[in-house]
Structures are given as structure tokens and as C-alpha cells.
Amino acid sequence: MHALLDPFAEPFMRRALIELLLLGVAGSLVGCWVLLYELAYSTESLAHALFPGLVAAALLGVPLLAGGAAGVLAAATAIALVVRTPVIARDTGVAVVITSLFGLGVVLALSPSAPPGLESLLFGDLLGVTRGDLVISGVLVAATAVAVVALHRPLLVAGFDRGSAGAFGAKPFLVDGALLMLIAVGVLVGVQALGNLLVIAMLVGPAAGARRLVERLPAMMGLATLLAWTAAIAGLYLSYYLDVAAGAAVASATVALFLIAALTGAFRHA
Amino acid sequence: MQDREPVTLVEARGVRAGYGRSVVLEDVDFDLRGGERIAVLGPNGGGKSTLFRLLLGELEPFGGELVMNGAGAFVPQTERSRLDYPVSALDVALMGTLSRLPWWRPNGRRERRFAREALGRVGLAGLADAQFGELSGGQRQRVLVARALVQNAPILFLDEPFVGVDRPSEQLLEQLIVDLAAEGRGIMVATHDIEQTYRYDRVLCLNGRQVALGPPLQTLTREVLETTYGGAIVTLPDEGQTAAILPPHHH
């Protein structure tokens, strides 16, 4: 019994757990749409592209959320400009923008004048989550859940058949914009705990695993959340007993659960 | 909707339309009345989709006059919809509520009942909870008709509804179109298939402009067909019986 409860004797471990449970909800709800819209790679790119915004916010002492939002806008503008440049292929342009922005963020974060601790933006600081962080995450996750429920029908219609979505009262352009904002919020919530590099695990892993096992969207969202919570708990135990970095342990547990789900799904369909 | 003087649902007078600055369709001039079925015949790129987008309000006409006395519901080609989507037939039918109910409102019991009724209407009551992607082409097409019925519009536009559909489903769909028109709806069906158009009240031939309009038997002359298809018609030996055959179409 002690072995099970020991890790959560410390308040910082309990806060980490609560943070991950909250993230599990947001990541799974948004993650299902990321998969259905085939935006996994774009989400990864977005996470990297808003990095300089996060670093700038940390350097200037403004809320990370504001920096991240500015970073998303800057990245979206840069990508929109580059893909319109005739001499550069589309995917090349996107890759160049993402890499440049990420590089810029790293340069800023690792400059001698930067305060210590900025590397936590890259790998997260799961065990350093404060009460205030939990409140912010809670509010953002609740807002995300409300938005996912409200946007359910337009998202479903536009993703099902883009070409005819307009005839059914969905505006694909607006729907895309709304989804992009949801993803940006999801990334921002996740960065605190898992960092810029690992946040993608939370947005793709649980949803991808759930998709292998169930055939309806609400079931997929529910199962994804359960998978995310399982990974959170497993990751924290791993971290505590094997003394490995908490964020990385949770990300690894998420991937492991995805593999189990994929194998189970493959056997069931075979 | 029954036993009333047929209403004029669509009035088009010299309508011109296109995208950006290029005109892809002009001289469109027709009426659609309640209870009437019009086949829209024309080659790929002839303007069938543009006409539908215009009538569905997705495009504004460049010129001419277009009056819509009622909303239109759309049945796209089933090939365009995603088969890997995690939705049931009922979920797809429910998509038709988006144009009626505020976008942010979740579907309630009333909408579900309405969607189930629509599925029953197209003969799929028993498959409401089946995975959409696992249905046959014809069944999927009927689910899309049910979705349009949920939109509850007096005008129905069907885009190539018989492509990728087996023969029994095709007959079911045709009967369904006849029944829906009998209830007072105005129906327009885009098609490549000349033979099919003979079963409609009128045929509207398009090739960048309106080539002809009228009852199929009188309207589909060799000249009209040649203009509609740009002269790409091969004459068969048994002239008189089968007038023409078209080159195989490709998407």
C-alpha cells in the first residue's frame, strides 16, 4: 500500500498529478480533432513555432499565455507569407519557418543574459507546478471543454466533407481558425507541464490510441481521456521510483499505451 | 405540401456566374416548381456544380436575376465523404441540423427523432447506428439524402447521386426522388447519364451556358447533345434506337 501512496505524499507530486489529469482532458478532446483533421504534424510545428513567443514572455516577465498567443500569430503570419512565395515549395517554406522560429527561441533561451530556468519551457517543469498554475490550467481546460462541445457540429460537418460543408451551414475557413485556436490553447496548457518538445505526446498519443479501439467520436474522446490519465499516473510512478524526469516519463507512458492500444486494435480487427 | 397550386421555387433569368473574374456559366434561365424534377445534364466542367453552388447560396451571381423562394438542401457525391470518420449513419443524418439549429447548440432529442425519421424515409431505419464507412455505396448515398431531408428544405439538389451505386440502390433512390417530388419538393439532379434524364420531367443542358431546357424526349436532339458535349459524340450503328454514346467520364 505504501508503495502506491508514497509518491503522492508530497504536495508537489499531488499538484503534478492534478495538472496531468487536467491536461489529459484538454489534450484528449482537442487531440481527437487534431487526428480527424490530420493535423498531428501541424500541431507539432505549431508547438515549436510559438517557442520564441514563450521565451520572450519569460524574458519580459509577462504571462506565458500572452507570449504563446503572440508566438502563434507570428508563426501563422510567417507561414502564410512563405507559402505564397512562388520560388519556395510549400512544405519547404513551412519547415524553414518552423525551424527558424524554434532556433530563434533557443538562442534567446540560452543566451548568457537569460535568467536560469528557461530550459523548462523546452522540457516542462511538471514537479514545479504551483497552485496558481493549477488554477490557470483548470480555467483553460474548462474553456476548452466548453468550446469543444459548442464547436462539435461545425467541426464534424466541415471535417466530413470539406467541399460541401458550406451547403450545410459550416464555414471551413472559420472552423479551421477555431480549431487552430483550440490547438494553440492546448499547446499552451501543456507546455507548462510537459514542455515545448513533449507536449505533442499529450495531444496525439491518447487520441490515436483511442481511435484504434472505438468507432464513435464521443467514445473516442472518453477513452482518450482515460488513456491520458492512465499514462499520467503510470508516468509519475515511473518518475518517482526510477528517478527519471517526470515529463519524459509521462510522455513515454503515453506512447507505450498507444502501442498497446494499436496492437489490441490490430488483433481485434484481424 | 400536397394539393396546392405548385409554387415556383427557383426563378433564374439570364444568370451569369463564375469564380474570381472568370465566368464559367451564363445565360441560365429556368424556373423550378414544387413537385418538379429537373435533370441537369452536362460534361465535367460544364457548370453543373457552379449552378448548384449558386442555387445553394454559396456563390453570388455576377449578373442576371436569381430568386429563391425557399431554402435548398444538398446531397453531394458519396465519394467525397470520408469513410474513416468515426460516425454512425445517424450522426451523418444529424449533420443536416447545422443549417437549422444555432451552430453551438448540441443536438437534442427532437433532432435525433427527426434524423431517425429521415433515415426511415430512405429505408435505413434499421441501420441508423451502423458505422457510416461500413455501409454500401448506395446506402451511404441514401444516408446523405436523409441528411438533406433533415435540413427540411423545399428544394433538393443531388450531385451525381448514382455514381458508385449498385443497381437495386439506384432504383430505390430513383423511387425516393419521385416520392419526394410528389410531396411538393422541387428536385434537381446533376448527371452525366443521358439515358437517366429521360425519367425526369425536364432536362437542363449546360456547357458553360444553358444549351437547352425542356422535356427530355423533345429536348435531347442530336444537335443539343453535340452542343452540350462539345461534339464528342460517337454515333452507334443502330441509329434511332440509341442515338449516341458518350466517352467514359473521369473525375
Structure commentary:
The complex is a heterodimer of chains A (270) and B (251). With 270 residues, chain A is an all-alpha fold. Chain A has one domain: ABC transporter involved in vitamin B12 uptake, BtuC. Chain A is 81% helix and 0% strand. Chain A has helices at 2-5, 11-36, 40-49, 51-60, 64-83, 90-110, 120-123, 131-150, 152-160, 162-165, 172-213, 217-242, 246-269. The model of chain A has no long low-confidence stretch (mean pLDDT 90). Chain B is α/β, with parallel strands linked by helices. Chain B folds into 2 domains: 1-70 and 154-251, P-loop containing nucleotide triphosphate hydrolases (Rossmann fold, 3-Layer(aba) Sandwich); 85-151, no CATH class. Helices cover 29% and strands 24% of the residues of chain B. Chain B has helices spanning 48-55, 89-94, 109-121, 137-150, 167-182, 194-197, 216-219, 222-228; strands spanning 8-19, 22-33, 37-41, 63-68, 72-75, 155-159, 186-191, 202-206, 210-214. In chain B, the strands form 2 sheets. Chain B has a 6-stranded mixed sheet, with helices on both faces. In chain B, strand 1 and strand 2 (22-33) form a beta hairpin. In chain B, helix 3 (109-121) crosses helix 4 (137-150) and helix 4 (137-150) packs parallel to helix 5. The longest helix of chain B has 16 residues, at 167-182. Chain B is globular. The mean pLDDT of chain B is 88. The interface between A and B is medium-sized, with 25 and 30 residues.
Tags for this model:
heterodimer, A: 270 residues, ABC transporter involved in vitamin B12 uptake, BtuC, 81% helix, globular, B: alpha/beta, Rossmann fold, 2 domains, six-stranded mixed sheet, three-stranded antiparallel sheet
